[in-house]
Design a protein that fits this description.
Layout lengths: L18 H12 L8 H41 L6 H54 L5 H36 L1 H126 L4 H29 L8 H31 L4 H85 L2 H40 L17
Helix pairs in contact: 1-2, 2-3, 5-6, 5-8, 5-9, 6-7, 6-8, 7-8
């Protein structure tokens, strides 16, 4: 109930691929030369030995067939280029193939007879042993039901292996008939010759077309190279023109910046002169204030001196003289202020108002001085009692007038001092603004100069580089790049031609209902 399996070890259906087969092998290795303990173990060992023999035989046949086919292919490819010797080669190959086919047929018949004898011997031995163990197996069916299942599985594998073996034998027989039949070989040879001739004609035409295409591509590349060179020259000319325009613009900017710097320096000088004038006015104003304070101190001292005197008439005259002196001093102060103020054409509203106030104050002081002169003349005609009454009356008037003059002079001086301070602060702010603008202009001038220097250095470096690389060297470099691009294009075209050639070969091989391409491989059978 076991059949020999011709599958390769380790594949589906092979005894070696099962766990029981591995156990049997291990048992055989351990008990080499000993008699099997059961029919199952014996059949497994026998099946393993048959599989090993079939594997060695299959490897030998594959190796021999491979070298025979390679030898035939070498002879065909070595002689197919020689058109005159094709017929002699075909006749020699014909004889070699006939002899090999005859030997192969005899060897196959012997092998087939050996295989049949071995199978008959195997079937006899299996049947004999089955008959011996049938009673015991039948008695063990009820005790060991898995044995029945294994037998069923073995029967299924047997039928499956037999079907696959029959299919394989049919396929091998058909392939052997196709390869050994003379008419089939003759048709394949004629179709291959026709294919080679047609391919040769097509390849010649294709080569001519490719040569024309190559010439057109070469001319096109040369034209593109000339156009590229002209374009580069035009770009260089435009860049040079742009550089010239940029430098001219920078020079104009520098000239404008220089003019602005000069203007700012002139403004700065003018402001410095104004500052000096303001400082002088401040000093003069301080001197005037100090003079008035000295006058005030002197008047107070004289008043103190007159307080102790009882001669009111003399005190009146002395007081009138002192007041006239003070009025003269005040007039001198006002005149100094008027001399320090600019002309009417150069005044603004505030300065004009200050000048008008100073003129009015000068007029008031002159009138007051004239009034004191008239009073001084009147004092000579007074008696002592009248002088005392007049002194007491004039004392209050003089105090009132003195306070009024002090107030007016203080207002005039404070207004002028405030005007000077405003002018000083505005001059300081204008000076700060001019300093900032001057610094900005200097910074812009430096940046523009740096840009011009950098552009000049870059231009000199480019000119130096162009001088170091001669025109011929650039031309050779362009030619080398063009040659490299052409070689790359040729390689791409060659790959394209090779791909087209392969496609044409496949199409021509498949062309025709009776044409079959020569197959130099061999599909290995999975035993």
């Amino acid at each position: 109930f076991l059949v020999m399996s011709r599958r390769r070890p380790g594949t589906a259906g092979s005894v070696r691929s099962t766990a029981s087969g591995r156990n049997a092998l291990s048992a055989l290795k351990v008990r080499s030369g000993a008699r099997p303990s059961s029919a199952k173990e014996w059949f497994e060992a026998y099946n393993h030995r048959r599989n090993e023999e079939a594997l060695r035989l299959d490897d030998w046949k594959n190796t021999a067939s491979h070298f025979q086919k390679r030898e035939f292919q070498t002879q065909v490819y070595n002689n197919i280029v020689h058109t005159n010797g094709i017929r002699q080669l075909e006749q020699a190959n014909w004889k070699v193939k006939e002899e090999k086919a005859r030997k192969l047929k005899v060897r196959r018949e012997k092998l087939w007879e050996l295989l049949k004898a071995d199978e008959r011997k195997y079937e006899d031995e299996r049947h004999r042993r089955y008959e011996k163990t049938r009673v015991r197996t039948y008695d063990r069916d009820a005790i060991y039901p898995e044995v029945v299942m294994l037998q069923t599985r073995l029967e299924e594998l047997k039928s499956k292996n037999a079907e696959e073996r029959h299919k394989m034998v049919d396929n091998l027989a058909y392939e052997a008939w196709r390869k050994d039949h003379p008419k089939v070989r003759q048709m394949e040879t004629e179709r291959m010759n026709k294919f080679i001739q047609e391919a040769w004609v097509d390849q010649k035409q294709y080569k001519k077309d490719q040569q024309l295409k190559y010439e057109e591509e070469r001319k096109k590349k040369e034209t593109e190279a000339l156009d590229l060179e002209r374009q580069k020259m035009e770009e260089e000319r435009l860049q040079e023109q742009e550089r010239i325009n940029r430098h001219a613009e920078w020079r104009n900017q520098l000239a404008q910046q220089v003019e602005e710097i000069k203007y700012r320096e002139a403004e700065e000088k003018l402001l410095n002169a104004q500052d000096q004038n303001l400082e002088r006015e401040k000093i003069r104003l301080q001197e005037l204030i100090q003079r008035r304070n000295r006058m005030k101190d002197l008047r107070q001292r004289k008043e103190l001196e007159l307080c102790w005197a009882r001669q009111y008439q003399l005190k009146l005259k002395k007081k009138a003289v002192d007041i006239q002196q003070e009025l003269l001093e005040d007039e001198g102060i006002v005149e100094d202020l008027l001399r320090g103020l600019p002309d009417d054409s150069q005044q603004d509203d505030k300065l004009r108002q200050r000048r008008e106030e100073a003129d009015w104050m000068k007029t008031v002081l002159e009138e007051q001085r004239k009034l004191e002169q008239m009073r001084e003349k009147e004092y000579d005609l007074l008696f002592s009692e009248e002088a005392e009454r007049v002194w007491m009356k004039r004392q209050s008037e003089w105090d009132k007038e003195q306070r009024t003059r002090d107030k007016l002079m203080k207002e005039v001086l404070s207004g002028i001092q405030q005007q000077i301070q405003e002018k000083a602060s505005s001059a300081s702010a204008e000076k700060s603004r001019i300093d900032r603008e001057k610094k900005d202009l200097q910074r812009s001038f430096v940046e523009t100069s740096e840009k011009m220097n950098e552009d000049k250095q870059r231009r000199e470096a480019e000119m130096q580089q162009q001088q170091n690389v001669p025109q011929s060297g650039r031309r050779l470099q362009e030619v080398e790049e063009l040659r490299h691009s052409r070689a790359e294009e040729e390689r791409r075209l060659e790959d394209h031609r090779r791909e087209i050639s392969h496609l044409e070969e496949e199409m021509k091989r498949l062309w025709g209902p009776q044409y079959r391409p020569p197959h130099y491989g061999r599909k290995r059978v999975a035993w």
